[in-house]
Amino acid sequence: MMRPALLVLLIAMLPCTGSAADLRGHGGPVRGLSVTADGLMAVSGSFDTTAILWSLQTGSAQQVLRFHAGSVNAAIFLPGSTASAPRFATAGDDGRIALWEGGATAPSRVFEGHSGPVVALAVSADGSRLGSAAWDGSARVWPLDGQGAPSVLEGHQGNVNGIGFLASGEIATIGYDGTLRVWPADGPARVTTFETPLNALAVLGESRLAVGGGDGRLRIVSAADGSVEAESAVAPTPISAIAVSGDGQTVAVSGLRGAVQVFGGRSLEPLRTLVGPGMPVWSMAFVPGTADLLTGGNDHVVRRWDTRTGAPLGQGLLVSEADPLAAYGDDPGAEVFRACVACHTLQPGEGTRAGPSLHGVMGRRIATLPGYDYSPAFAGHDIVWTKKTIARLFEVGPHALTPGTKMPEQTITRPESRQALVDFLARVTAPKD
After folding, report:
1. What's the rounded Cα separation, in Å, for the pair 287 and 304?
2. How many Cα neighbours within 13 Å face the side chain of 418?
3. Nearest in space to 326 (alpha carbons), one of 281, 278, 287
4. Is the same domain home to 297 and 216?
5. 3-state secondary structure of 150
6. Residue 199 lies in a domain
7. Cα Rg of the chain (Å, integer)
8. How far is CA 231 from CA 37, 84, 284, 310, in A?
């Protein structure tokens, strides 16, 4: 655990931007974002295992919180939060959900029960319940007063990636199995199946849902019958996050290529594109009372944008970072690897990201790279990485080949693409004599 004096020093060293726009302080990709109803505070969660409470007036970190044993994938303010008395929840790879009261350095309460990473949180309209979606195949609904056991929603085949509360009190969940499930207070869920994994979910008005797929398409879906009311092709890569403005008139959608598309919330008419550093955007939140949008991504920074103009409100937002795969030209294996570059580096000296460096991976036994903190379940497998085993990993999926992994679930369906990837990795990660 970090000593209090050192923690205070680190908070003091976090930059304070006069524009109150860029929020810099995380040491890893920003996975979760939420803003208080008064628009004065934000909370973010990161791959670096921390949550940070921010002042949006000064652009400074108010508190750095360490509790989760792994990535903090979701963060959400609870009803009644204000700048002077923030209340929020965080959830992480460790399967735990922590409730925080303003100013405390430890959670006031911890919800445990999930057996896999918790990746999304939602709060009911009346503020009495907290919903969680996890990679253990379930969603749970927790009474925030701590009275009684959580309700467990089971039915998805694989990762549950999103959860939301409807005005009716029903609960919507989405999963890697391509299903949208709407759960009534009692009785079975209404199930709608799409021909793509579903990655992101937001409630849009009283009975409509914004759903983002692995096919890069955004769909507005009726919660009543599962019909698609509007649809738009956003990107050639999977959608990673969706945010809806407080009035429901604007929807922001992000993907792995880094640009954020802004649409009208009724018929998905394109409004504008927010062009950042070209790196994956994992989390977004609108600032209530404004047209401003916060985004958090792979560059470790929380950025602020004016969605009316598409203009960034911070400094240096449009200075693109170097393409880490530029040196490999149009190598087909490098193009396949673009889905992996968010988490893995290839060369010595490039350090580690959310996942271990792949330098020297061929012939390396699983979970043996010095200095990387592997999950116990992952380290328990008996695999040596070769072209054959890596191809198999992406043929059946990480969660089938290596149960217990924290690696995002993804498969490569085309054999020629898997072959291009493993040929590329064998060539570029080999140690140089």
Report:
1. 9
2. 18
3. 278
4. yes
5. coil
6. yes
7. 21
8. 29, 41, 20, 22
Mean pLDDT of the chain: 87
pTM for the whole structure = 0.74
Q: Are residues 227 and 89 in the same domain?
A: yes
Angle, in degrees to the nearest 10, between helices 387-396 and 415-428: 140
> What are φ and ψ of residue 281, in 5° steps?
-110, 120
Q: Check residues 402 and 212 and name the one with the higher pLDDT.
A: 212
Same domain assignment for residues 144 and 291: yes
Residues 199-225 as b or e (16 or more Cβ within 10 Å = b): bbbbbbbebbbbbbbbbbbbbbbebee
Bridge partners, 43 (sequence order): 34, 53
Whether residue 10 is predicted with pLDDT greater than 90 in this model: the reply is no
pLDDT tens digits, one per residue of 349-371: 776 666 788 999 999 999 898 87
Contact 85, 62 (CB under 8 A): no
Question: 272-294 pLDDT, tens per residue?
Answer: 999 887 788 999 999 999 999 99
What distance in Å separates the CA atoms of residue 243 and residue 292, rounded to the nearest whole number? 11
Tell me whether residue 319 is in a domain. Answer: no
Q: Specify the amino acid at residue 372.
A: Y
Give the mean model confidence (pLDDT) for residues 90-116. Answer: 94
**Mean pLDDT, residues 21-49:** 90
At 319-339, the pLDDT tens digits run 334 567 778 888 899 888 876
| Contact in structure between 189 and 182 (CB atoms under 8 Å) | yes
Unique residue bearing structure tokens 């030209």: 329
How far apart CA 86 and CA 92 sit, in angstroms, is 20
Q: How far lies 224's CA from each of 161, 176, 227, 231, 280, in Å? A: 20, 21, 8, 17, 32
The DSSP H or E segment spanning 72 is strand 72-77
